[in-house]
Each structure stands twice: as structure tokens, then as C-alpha cells.
Design a protein that fits this description.
Order of helices and strands: HHHHHHHHHHHHHH
Structural class: mainly alpha
Number of helices: 14
Helix content: over 70%
Distance between the termini: 19 Å
Length: about 300
């Protein structure tokens, strides 16, 4: 979000980013909560039946949307309020529990914009790094470790050189393998993660490891011309465009079409069929959201340009 600002020094980039950040996220999120409302009202969700059959508490409670036998408010009013405001203000996410990240995404974005503006005049790399570390520590101590990703991202945007010596392909490949390994880390996991769990203090959240790994893969790609060229290709650009709609919609598909498929198929085929159908239909269902996203971003950019 701040890399282009550090490359150009144009403060208008931060202003535009800040002005459009909430509506940019709220548009597709509102479409998602309204879609979930329609599915719920139409009786298309079959998660409770599959949860009972499989013993999955996660499914039985609509991906942990609620923890008691009392269903949350799945009214149209609640869907509109949650999609437009409450998931960002309070973290409400019972229409789609993937929306729990949206509050962090919105508030963290403003942390990133503000921190970037603060450190831009600084000329010493160590001072820039110190400000970013201090911000990360304050956010972790006072709010949540989830916000650490944002000052780390600003540090990368500010400190990665515009040009420099590129990594050789072997080093880049080794780095990518390492960070993929770190991204899979969970507390208490055995197997390949036994050693990592043994050497890390238990009070260090796994989030820190994931942020470190994410920073590593960003730095690696920035320093690898071949990896950067590959990820800048049309196919990967389309994957990036589809990633947010898929993230928003796949749970709704899993709990409706996926669960219905599980119930309709013979037991021997139910899991594999439900998995395959969920993947295919998730892409199909994400397409309208991709189209909406393109239209929404275009309209927002035009509105912000008019203001500035």
C-alpha cells in the first residue's frame, strides 16, 4: 500500500489510499453479507446437517459463527449493517467468519498510511527501522499482534532499494521454500515443525512467524527478477484479482453447495465430491464479485479523483 509512495514521494498517494480504503473494502464485503443473507433465507445452507453427521463443531456452528445454540441475527438489516459498518467497527462476522480480518485490514491500513507519512522525511535507515519496530511493539502491546504486519510492510516499502543486486535463482528458490515452510507453522504441530516448536518460546504468537515469512517472500521476490517477472504476468495478475473475491465467497459455497453435495452423494464419494464441487463452484461464484470489484474500484477512483 505504501511502496509507490516511497518510490515517488507523492503524498497524494497516501491521501487517495486513505480516502478510499473503507469503501474499497466495504463494497465487496457488503455484497458478501447480502449473499449470505439470501442463502440463509432460502434455506440453501446445509452446514448444520453435515456438522451433525461428521461431528464437526466448526461446521455445525457455521464456521464458528456462534458458540451457543442461539442463532445470531441473520436478518436483512443485520446483513447490511455488518457488511457496511459493523465488521469494520466491531469485527462482527457471523454472515461469513472470514470477515474477522476486515477490522484489522481497515485499521491497519491507516496505521500504514500514517507511519509512512511520519517516516518519509527521515534519511537514516536505522531510524526508519526503529520507528517501525516501535510502532509494531506499541500495537502488539496495546491492541493485537495481528497489526504487526502493517509496520513491517511499511518498513519493507521504505527500505527495499529501488534497484540493486538481484538474487541468483538458486538463492531465491531456497528462500521461497523456507518461507513457505514458515507460513505453515502452527503452535503444537509435530512432524516438520517439532524442532521449531521446541526452540521458540511458547508465548510468541504464530502470527509473528507468519509475518516474518511474508516479509521474507516479499523481499525475495523484489530481489529476484525472474520471480518478479513471473508474478507480474497476466495469469498471476488475474489470480491476484480473484484472490479477494475467492476469500470472501468460498465459505458460503462450502456451507451451501458443498454441504448439499456431501449429503446427496454416497458415503464413499461424499467427501471427494463435496471438495471438488466446492472448489469449482467457488470460482464460478467469485466471478460476479470480480466483475463488481472492477466496477466498484473504477467508480471509487473516479470519485476520489473528483475530490482531489
Amino acid at each position: 500500500m505504501t511502496r509507490k509512495f516511497f518510490l515517488t514521494g507523492e503524498f497524494s498517494i497516501l491521501i487517495r489510499g486513505a480516502l478510499k480504503r473503507w469503501p474499497r473494502l466495504a463494497g465487496p464485503v457488503l455484497v458478501t453479507t447480502l449473499t449470505s443473507f439470501v442463502l440463509m433465507a432460502a434455506g440453501a445452507y446445509r452446514f448444520s446437517e453435515v456438522g451433525a453427521l461428521t461431528g464437526s463443531q466448526w461446521l455445525r456452528t457455521f464456521a464458528n459463527s456462534y458458540t451457543s445454540e442461539v442463532m445470531p441475527d441473520f436478518s436483512l438489516r443485520a446483513a447490511v449493517g455488518q457488511g457496511a459498518i459493523m465488521t469494520f467497527l466491531k469485527g462482527e462476522s457471523w454472515f461469513d467468519t472470514n470477515l474477522w480480518t476486515m477490522r484489522y485490514e481497515l485499521l491497519g491500513s491507516f496505521v500504514a498510511f500514517g507511519l509512512a507519512a511520519l517516516i518519509y522525511p527521515l534519511r537514516h535507515r536505522r531510524l526508519i527501522l526503529a520507528y517501525c519496530i516501535l510502532t509494531a511493539l506499541l500495537l502488539t502491546h496495546s491492541i493485537s499482534p495481528q497489526y504487526v504486519a502493517f509496520p513491517v510492510g511499511v518498513a519493507l516499502a521504505a527500505l527495499l532499494p529501488k534497484q540493486g543486486r538481484a538474487l541468483n535463482p538458486a538463492a531465491a528458490a531456497a528462500s521461497i521454500v523456507l518461507v513457505i515452510y514458515l507460513l505453515g507453522f502452527t503452535r503444537g504441530a509435530g512432524g516438520a515443525y517439532t524442532f521449531l516448536n521446541a526452540i521458540l518460546p511458547y508465548n510468541i504468537p504464530a502470527t509473528y512467524i507468519h509475518v516474518l515469512a511474508s516479509a521474507g517472500i516479499i523481499a525475495t521476490i523484489e530481489k529476484s527478477s525472474s520471480a518478479k517477472a513471473l508474478l507480474s504476468s497476466r495469469g498471476f495478475a488475474l489470480l491476484g484479482e480473484w484472490s479477494f473475491p475467492l476469500y470472501l465467497i468460498h465459505l458460503l459455497v462450502l456451507c451451501s453447495v458443498g454441504c448439499a453435495t456431501f449429503l446427496a452423494m454416497p458415503e464413499a464419494l461424499s467427501r471427494s465430491a463435496a471438495t471438488a464441487i466446492t472448489i469449482v463452484v467457488s470460482f464460478v461464484a467469485a466471478y460476479p464479485l470480480v466483475v463488481f470489484n472492477r466496477w466498484w474500484i473504477k467508480r471509487l477512483n473516479g470519485a476520489i479523483a473528483g475530490l482531489m
